[in-house]
Amino acid sequence: MARDGTRLPAMAWRNIWRNRRRTLITLSSIGFGTALAILMTAVQDAQWRDMIDVAARLGGGHVTLQHTEYLDTPTLSRSINGTPALRTLALEDPHVDRVTERITGFLMLSTAAQSYGAAFIAYDPATEDPETLSILEAMKEGEPLEDAHEPRIVIGSQLAQNLDTQLGKKIIFTLTDKNAEIISQTVRLKGIIHTGAPTLDGALALLPIGLVRETIAYAPQEAVQLGLFLEDQRQAETVAARLGNHLDADVDAVPWYDAQADLATFIMLKIAGSYFFEAIMALLVAAGIFNTIFVSVMERLREFGVLLAIGFSPRRLFGLVMFESFWLGVMGLVFAALLSAWPYYFLATTGIDMSAMIGEGNSEVAGVAIAPIIKAGIYPENFVYIILAALGATLLSGLYPAWKAGRIEPVESIKLV
Asked: Which end of the chain has fewer CB atoms surrounding its CB within 10 Å, N or C?
């Protein structure tokens, strides 16, 4: 009977094709369900990864080094000193790709016609580019800043319209410095950005960090925050924890999901919703597989009784049915790969333009613009999880039918017609 055991996979393969229509329906169920899970997860992974990266490039990086009280009290008096030493420490981490210095806060912009409040980001044009400050990609008119000390400013398109100003015109910015004194500085408008996100276009200004340092009485090695940019945003927690062990008591390493809690909550809710939908879908697919295997077992009770009567052990019979489940799972995954290959390639390389549906003025979440093109890019481990989950669900669906097959009484089952 040992040879019977070695032939179980071949016997199971032949068995699943005895009823081709039922098998094909089951394979379609597994294939479509798994393919849909792969594509949904791929789109989700790409969308949230891009949003997190955009938020990091717009804010303080994937991990931000800042004063321990800045998150609760974001004022210019909550600054950090010794930025070169902190930069060196951060770059020692293998996950950290780049480090930038920034001064952020709020100010009042005034022209001869109007005055409006805005948030500002002061940066060093010599060390930053669109890879660290994404808003530079949205330059609509004029030019970006070129020098850390030039008396120039770049503002959002809606803010420029509100201020009734044009390129080259004077703008006065007023803010409270680190000593709580109100100071003003005159600059000229050098560029106008347009992102499509109202929060950014209507209330954001870019300034050179050297000019701002001089204006608010900061030291040359003083900043509000250091932005750390990682190769993989999922390492933010690890990097923040490691750096936290080497920082002074007045400096914190804050991962992006703490610095931008609104965005993190939105993403978490969306991911939880997709997981729930995928779980329901997996349950429905598993129910279909269970029904197929169980009906197949019940139809072959007499056959199983004969096998048991000639010496086929209950364990081998259990294994036979489980191999049938295994083959269904494997073939279903192959079908899923065929179904998802072209759509995944299209989404990964071209994507679907949703600009018309998103519309102007409705394309942001927590101040972060939503990409108008849907693309795909699944994390390898998520792909493996889906494959293992699909195969596991198939095998679990076959457990009870396999147990049922091994528990039948040969004498009684042989009597069945």
From this structure: C
